Amino acid sequence: ACVFDPWRMDLPWFDRALGRATEAGNxxxxxxxxxxxxxxxxxxxxxxEALTWCERSLALAAEGADDRxxxxxxxxYGQALAAAGRTAEAxxxxxxxxxxxxxxxxxxxxxxxxxxTLAVKGTVLGDLAxxxxxxxxxxxxxxxxxxxxxxxxxxxxxxxxxxxxxxxRWEEAITAADRCQRIGQQVRSLFTMTMGRAAxxxxxxxAGGGETALRALIDCSDWLxxxxxxxxxxxxxxxxxxxxxxxxxxxxxxxxAARALRRARH
Length: 266
Prior knowledge:
- The chain is mainly α.
- It is built from 13 helices and no strands.
- α5 packs antiparallel against α6.
- The radius of gyration is 19 Å and the shape is globular.
C-alpha cells in the first residue's frame, strides 16, 4: 500500500514484521520482510539501505525461495543500483530480470512489474546517452501497461519525461510529464504526481516559461519534504539550480546545488 507513496513513518511496521519473523525462526517470512524493507527504502530514496537489505534478501533466498521472488529481488537490486548512479552494475541486472519476466508472462493482465523494470532500464540508457535504445525500451514498457491507469504508468511517464529533458525535447517532455501528473492524481500518489509536475514545470521553463513555472518547481520541492522522500530528488534540485542560476539568483541556486551534491555523496 505504501510503495507508490511512502512515508518514513511506515518503516517501523516493516521492522516489527522482520522481528516477528526472526523470533519465529521462519526463513521464508524473514525473506519477505527483508525484501519489503529493501523496496521501501528504495522508494524513499535510501539507496545505501536498500542495497544492504537487497543483499541480505538475496542471501536468504539462497536458502530457498521461489523463482518469481528471486527474479523480483534481482530487479529491485538493479533498480536500487540505478537510483544510486551505479549504472554499469545496474544494467545487466535489469536486462536479466526483464528477459526472465518476459519469458514468464501470462499475457492475461498488464505486466506492471516488467514495465517498471524496463522504465528504469530506459532511464539508465538515457543516462548513458543511448537515447534511441531508451526510446525503444520506454515504448515496450508502455505497450505492456496497455493504457491502464496504474501507478507504474505514472512512474514510467515521469521517468520518460526526464530522459526527454536530457535531450532538450521540451514539448515531448511536458506531454509525458503531464501524463505522469494526471495519472498520479487519479491514483492518489503524491510522489508521482509531484515528480510529474516538477518535470513539466522545468520543461515549461526551458521552453520559455517564466516565474510561474519556476514557482511551481519550488512548490514541488517543498511538497516532498514532510514525507522524507528523497527518490529522484536530485532531479528537482538540479532543475532548480539551473533555473535560479540563469536568473542570477545565486544564493538560492547554491542552496539547491549543495543539496544535490549532498545527495550525490549519499
